[in-house]
Design goal:
Protein name: HAD-superfamily class IIA hydrolase, TIGR01459
Keywords: Hydrolase
GO molecular function, one term: phosphatase activity
Pfam families: Hydrolase_6, Hydrolase_like
Helix content: 25-40%
CATH architecture of one domain: 3-Layer(aba) Sandwich
Shape: globular
InterPro entries: HAD-like_sf, HAD-SF_hydro_IIA, HAD-SF_hydro_IIA_hyp3, HAD_sf
Length: 290
Amino acid sequence: MANYSAPGPISGLAALAPRYDAVLCDVWGVLHNGVASFPPARAALAAFRAAGGTVVLITNAPRTSPFIVEQIAELGVPAASYDAIVTSGDVTRELLAAKAPARLRHIGPEQHLSLYEGLDLPLASVDEAEIVSCTGLRDDIHETPEDYEAELAALAARGLPMICANPDIVVERGHQLVYCAGALAARYDALGGSTSVAGKPHPPIYDAALERVAAIRSGPIALDRVLAIGDGAPTDLAGAYRHGIDVLFVTGGIHSGHFGPADAPDTAAVHRFLEDEGLGATAFLPSLVW
C-alpha cells in the first residue's frame, strides 16, 4: 500500500502531475454531480492529457461504458478530458456472463436493462429467479432501501447470490443525496445473502482500468506512476489504497460536511476523517482543478 497517512492540501492537479503518467479519475462527484459537469475538473484532466498523461475515467455506474460516454457528453464533458472509461457495469457484465444460462431477478430501473443485452439471462420473478442482479433502486428519488426489505428478505431466504453493479451507497445528484445499489447490497448481506461486487473498491475494476492504461500507452506502467482521484472514502479512497495506488482526495464531494468550509477544508479534520476510516491520501483539495 502507498504510504500517505497525513496528506497536505494542494492548489491543483498541476502540483502532482509530473509524478504520474496516468490518472484513474472518479466521475460522479469529481467530474459532474449528475446534473452538470464541473468546468475546472474537465479542464484539469484535459491539461494532464495535453502534458502527455493518460486519463481513464473509473466509475461505479451500473451501465456499460458507451452509455456513460453519451451521458457525460450531454453534461458537457469533452472527449479531450479523457482517453477511456471503465465502468462497474463493464466488469459486472463479465460476472453475469459467467452465470449464464440462469433466470435473473433484476432490481433497478428499466433503463439499466441494457446491461443484460446479449446474455442468456432471462428476467424472472422473486420465486423463479436463480440469481439476483442489483443496479440500483427502481425510483431513487422517492424510494429508500426500506422499501425493498420484503423482496430482499425473500431472495436471501432462497440463498440466491446477488451481483451488485454499483457498490456506491449514496451519490449526490445536484444537492440531493440518493441511494444506490450498494445500499441494497449491504442490506442483502445483513439479511444473510451473499453478494459479489466488481466496482470500486474491489480489484476487478482497477485491473480493468490498468489494462486500458497499458493498451493506450503500449505497455504497463508502474503503480507508483498512477494517481487515483476521487471523493468517496468507501469506494475511491479504499479501492486505491488497497490496490497500492496514490490517491488525490477531493474533499468537496459526499464527505464535505466533515471538513468545515467547502472551499477551505480544515487539514486536521481531513486527517481525523482518514484516520477514522483507516485510509489515507497523497494530497487533498476541495474540487478538481489544474
